[in-house]
Write a structure and sequence with these properties.
By secondary structure, the chain is an all-beta fold. About 5% of the residues lie in helices and about 60% in strands. Strands 21, 23, 24, 25, 26, 28, 29, 30 and 31 form a nine-stranded mixed beta sheet that branches.
Amino acid sequence: MDGLLNYKCGGNYGITGLQSYHWNSREDRRFNIKCCDVSNNGDYAISTVYQTGYVNEYDGKINFKCGYMEVLVGLYSHHDNHKEDRRFKLYCGRIAPADNLKAAKRNSVDWTNWLNDWDRALEFTAPGNSFIVGFDSHHDNHREDRRWKLGTATLDGAICEENGWSAPANGYDDTMDYLCPANHALAGAKSSHHNHHEDRIWWFRCCDLSKSGIYLLKSPLLSSQPNNLDGRLFYECAQDSVISGAFSVHSNSKEDRHWLFYCSQVVKISSYFKEISDVVVSTECPVITSGVVDKKTASMSTDGTNAIRDSNMEIEDCLELSFENQVQWTESTCKSETSAHTKSYTSSVSHEWSVTASATTGIYGVEASLETSYSLALEDSKTTEDTTENSEEQCSENTEVSTTSTTMSNCKICSTTVPSGSCVVLKKVVTYRKITAHCEDFREVSATNIDGSKAEYKDLVIFFKEIGMKSSPYKVGPHTLGYRTEVDMEVAHDHQAACIIDRCGGETGE
């Protein structure tokens, strides 16, 4: 209490909360400060921290914001016992993409023709997804005005979403200091000339390069050498940079302006994809068991005890059993920023299971070898269009079940001779079996970047972890990630019929 407050978060942390309570006897406050990591897992860094001057007077208001691409990182405050109040200085930190991100080179410059006549209005918006990278101008001392050309360029795969026009960036004869918002490049300029002031008022429009999903802009740097008054102005940002603002001071004696321009370096990231494909390529079933599903019986009898000759009897009935083949698999995923910015996500299952079982236990005591294959084909291909952008993590576990019906029909004919003087019962017993298998799907993930190129394996691993997959990924190729998921299935296997003869009270065999 009543002492000096001097606190900075440190590292790549910015202030995210303040808690304060007042002590009446001291007429002062104590502060608790909460900080958070703004690096986004290493994508950004706080490059410079500076201290402001005092931002308030004793008993006065505080209304201050850190600048473009800056965050509040600390407080400095001194208490006055006579005033019973504090004055504050603030620490602001400038945020820039981390230095480990690769600078991107834009394409060559396309210069316009003259956009205005002397003393006439100028209005220009960069076409398509291009943006402004240069200014070219000549001054006329008689007209005390300038004519302008603008240079535009593009980035491979870049989407530069335009905003509306700004408020006036300057007044007549006033200083101009204009900056586009974070990750925005200058995309348009318009101005009108006033003959009395011999000056122009300017408006600008900007476009958001971060909408591309693959580009960000570093903090702007102001050019160091202004143009000569009444002379030619020519300025072009470096090939890895775009114009993100302008600074200008008017000279009443020369009726011209000194111009400087803000340039922001473009860096390439690999966070978002245009399309993602997740496909099952094969399935193995290391655990297979066979078991009885059901038994069905048909029977008939013939009493020939009073017959004078032998007779025949047979069962021709087809015995059927309907069985639901079932395949079940579980997926656990989280919605991430990557998937939120992805245009489409295709998950396809198109595979055929072939299972083989063998049995050595005989039916009714007769040993037999059984080797049967059953094939089940499923196709479940879906594409999810996602246009929402929700940074909140949303996780879910989905159990998918696919079923197909199989009718197992046994039409074996059972027949026997009924000797004269005998009573015979004939039975047809059909045993139906199923196979239960625990399988592994081998899946492959690939993706297409916003610019149409294939995503690299390292970027697929990041995506795989972001969506919360529990399996361990492995490298299939430079642009393909593999992983396994568990699948359980229960499918119809086979059916066998046994013909059983009872001689009126005693079984005689098949």
